[in-house]
Amino acid sequence: MKISNFILFIICLPSFSLAQTTDSVNIKRTLNEININAIRADYTTPVAYTNLSKTEIEKSNLGQDLPFLISLSPSIVTTSDAGAGIGYTGFRIRGTDPSRINVTINGIPINDSESQGVWWVNMPDFASSLENIQIQRGVGTSTNGAAAFGASINLKTMNINNDAYVETNNSIGSFNTLKNNIKFGSGVISDKFTFDARLSKIISNGYIDRASSDLKSLYLQGTYFNKTSILKGIIFSGNERTYQAWNGVPLQYLDTNRTFNSYTYENEVDNYFQTHYQLHYKRNLNLNTNLNVAGHFTHGEGYYEQEKLDQNLSNYSLSDIIFENDTITSTNLIRRKWLNNDFWGITYSINHKQERINLILGGAYNRYSGQHYGNIIWSEFASDSHYNHEYYRNISTKFNNNIFIKSDYRASRKTSVFIDLQLRNIDYKFNGNDIDGNLDGQNVELEFFNPKFGITHKVDKHQAFYGSYSVANKEPNRSDYVESSPNSRPLHETLYDTEIGYKYKNKRLMFNANLYYMDYDNQLIKTGEINDVGYFTSKNVKKSFRRGIELEAAYLISSRIHISGNLTLSENKLDILRQFIDNWDTGIQNEIVHQNTDLAFSPKIIWATNVNFKLNNNTDINFNSKYVGEQFIDNTSSTERMLNDYLINNLQINYSIKNPVFKIAKISLLINNIFNNEYISNAWLYRFISNHSDPRENDHYVTKGSDNIYNMAGYFPQAKRNYLFGLTLGF
Description:
With 731 residues, the chain is mostly beta strands. It has a single domain, classed as Maltoporin, Chain A, CATH 2.40.170. It has four helices and 37 strands. The strands form five sheets. The protein has a 22-stranded antiparallel barrel. The chain has a five-stranded mixed beta sheet with strand order 1-6-7-4-5. The radius of gyration is 26 Å and the shape is globular. The termini are far apart.
């Protein structure tokens, strides 16, 4: 029997028993909003996770993107292209890059189906509409959408507000940063309806030169509910226009001109618009069983514009130009690379609880359609002032179907057994690589089985132990497929994740310890090797691992002083790395073999602390620190290609103004990097050999290493001391 049929048979069994329950049960309890328990962990789930409440999110939400709002969580390292936390931002968890971190909003997948990343710049000020966040580290529990290959994040939007309200949040700060939003809601109308909305605008010049952001967003929510069911419609939309700062800063400029931006063309911008539609329905079938169904649709459209100098016409599907009796084979031009995509599908779950078992059947069916194309909108030698030449088009569709069953069985009064079985199917169709377009009609079909097992044992009401073993499989991303041929196409990756943990909590102290071992088979990394199509795609590395310990603690010293912190100590290794380096003299690649090297962007130590001091009933002060250890920017463990460790400290003061007019009146002052440290959080690298000429004369991004190999690299400095001042008023 095929494994898919076997799993489907198991999954159907609880459905048959649920269908026999009666409808005559008198249901009196209130519905618990949109149900996302199907993909979330709770106290008895044997995984490492962190919950952030609405209060915790709001406290530091003065305009920076969501990665910076969760930056104090365990094992997280954040970065910002513009240097100030607004615009293009991102994070890694346990060294895992964003394309391997599953993100959902109310259980709906958010990761781009092809690149598998999440672009927070497309959802400006989304944190202002969140109720809570759960971050699961490791494989975690089964979720919808992209594979959780190191972490998953679930965002839950706002609950029903019983009372009508109007609230505005405004911030002003360094780099001409300005945030304005207004939120309002109707409260409950006729015991059946509510309506909520938010409008936001954020602008910032950025720390890096010309790295400006102009961000707009809206959030709309309407809800109908009765004693047994709830129907909620949600629309949220974002429009971003950011000046590009993707090249970073050359190494030699970091001491003298650390805000340097190589882009100088006035319209070198990224311009993208995206709207999400969600419709959620939940019904309590009886006291023990509820049904959840959601439909979703996302449309995104936009481009980034670039000035390109001395471009070969043949690379743009153009013939040579005869100009004043001369044959022109290259020209200066301006191009736009477009993405126009649609993503839609359904998610579903049936949750059934009995005395000793919590059973969840869930899944999703999603379809993505994307059009990638490029236009030349201006050419130096074009006679038409309205020039618009399309030089490539890549059309793709991707079907992603997953189904899972989870069982949390209380084997005894103190011991629970967790089983989670997921089947995931992928059908990806695409044609042509972006320039050549000579590999049409390609198709990839994959089927993954992802089992997870665990046990939790409660020692007493304060402490518990847990352990779990999970398997996750992940497909390569768009560029790995499009920029390869069937002969050079990489294989999928597999992760075997073991987690062992201890939890303790009483009225004043919380302590968690988690040991993890993430063993990879065929992990995809950049080796520098050029494939048979001429691209630098990711290659499978047979053996690699991440292992470490995560410690969390919080202690209530008194009613006024609360301290918390976390520490991650880890080792992140590759067994054997075959690195390929371009040789500009010979036109071939040189191979260098490395053994037992560190994985890139995986610091061995990360820690964070926070001290909260409640000065009086109106004033509280937060002082937090974040330390990130040394990181290598490639996989060779060379100290010449390494980011130094850094420690940053932030101070925030919140003051509530008691007055007879406003229900909420609060002012906040946030001082980021209060001790004015210089640090770098990210970089990119390209290595090559050139003995016949020295490229440093014409390219400031190039330096020469002690091994006589040239390094072309860009670094991303983060802002020194900067300020944000906020004012919140609400009725």
